[in-house]
Design goal:
The protein is of the alpha/beta class. 21% of the residues lie in helices and 21% in strands. It is built from six helices and 15 strands. It has helices at 18-29, 77-88, 108-113, 215-224, 247-256, 262-277, and strands at residues 45-49, 64-67, 94-97, 135-137, 141-149, 156-165, 168-169, 177-178, 195-198, 228-231, 239-244, 287-292, 296-297, 303-304, 308-311. Strands 5-6-9-10-12-11 form a six-stranded mixed β-sheet, with no helix packed on it. α2 (77-88) links the parallel β2 and β3 (94-97). The longest helix has 16 residues, at 262-277. The chain is globular, with a radius of gyration of 22 Å. Residues 1-7 have low confidence and may be disordered.
């Protein structure tokens, strides 16, 4: 019989494949990253925000301002117009906005199916009555923007191709949502896209502890490989991640998905060795920066975070 003075022995809980995933993550992080191919003197400053939910945070200066949806709380006309007026008053050269699942006014099919969400305060006003001014709205479409950088006497003009889409896997009753498991992303993003703006995150990338991101979006990001991907939706996933889509990354993803084992770990070790033997400048791969730019967090949106700034 144990005495009361004895302390119970605690054992740490190890999830299945814990050691396998840990080794795979360490191998991935030990590989040198390729350098950016952009000229350091003609970089474009991108200010990223999402999920402001009627708040109007102070924004730093930049060339391009991106809002990845959920400007509002209820998605009423007055809420959205107030946010658009605030955004259009910002000094950035270009401003891009997509809708989030809260912007019900921008989803006429949703309003038609759920007329109770056409709030009395709208007074018959629709998305066609919104005043966008200098804000560019993207919904499943691309735009090419030009930036003149004064890095020499003549200056340099850079062009960014930007694609925006609001769709997320269904959760609750909200706008711009599709049945979870439905593939709406395959071959959707143009191959020349430099910046991809979506409301929700790709699966397993800044998508919270429950991995609430979209698998098909993750596959499309890997296929199209834009320089920058901006999103929000999952507030707790806020942050920034740089990834390189090469053979090492593909092996890592297969291990993390439970599709590979120790043989792939051995292959990853060989791949890491090769990346150290081959000079970075000769590696034919680029970095994709993922940004979850959610501004608010907390059950009542009581916490506010600054924008995330990326130079590309």
């Amino acid at each position: 019989m144990a005495s009361w003075s004895e302390k119970p022995a605690y054992r740490s809980i190890r999830l299945p494949r814990h050691r396998l995933n840990t080794v795979a993550k360490r191998l991935l992080s030990s590989s040198p990253s390729p350098r950016s191919t952009s000229s350091q003197t003609s970089l474009i400053t991108v200010v990223c925000i999402s999920d402001t939910h009627n708040t109007q945070p102070e924004l730093p200066l930049g060339d391009l301002l991106i809002h990845a949806g959920d400007l509002s709380v209820d998605g009423s006309f007055d809420e959205i117009q107030t946010q658009l007026t605030w955004l259009s008053a910002q000094p950035h050269t270009h401003k891009i906005v997509i809708a989030g699942n809260h912007e019900v006014l921008l989803d006429p099919d949703f309003i038609k199916a759920h007329p109770e969400r056409d709030y009395p305060s709208n007074r018959g006003r629709t998305s066609r009555d919104l005043i966008w001014r200098s804000v560019r709205y993207l919904q499943d479409e691309s735009i090419s923007l030009h930036f003149h950088k004064k890095d020499s006497l003549e200056g340099t003009t850079r062009t960014l191709n930007i694609y925006g889409s609001p769709w997320t896997p269904r959760y609750g009753l909200s706008a711009f949502q599709r049945r979870r498991g439905e593939d709406i992303w395959t071959d959707k993003v143009p191959s020349n896209t430099d910046v991809l703006v979506t409301h929700g995150p790709p699966y397993k990338h800044l998508d919270g502890a429950l991995s609430s991101g979209c698998r098909y979006l993750a596959q499309e990001v890997e296929r199209s490989r834009p320089r920058l991907v901006v999103f929000g939706h999952i507030h707790v996933g806020r942050g920034q991640e740089d990834i390189v889509f090469d053979g090492l990354r593909k092996s890592y993803e297969s291990v993390r998905a439970g599709e590979a084992g120790w043989m792939t770990i051995m292959f990853m070790a060989l791949q890491v060795l090769c990346t150290w033997l081959v000079p970075v400048k000769f590696r034919k791969c680029t970095t994709t920066t993922l940004v979850n730019a959610a501004v608010v967090s907390g059950d009542r949106h009581e916490y506010q975070h600054p924008s995330i700034v990326v130079k590309i």
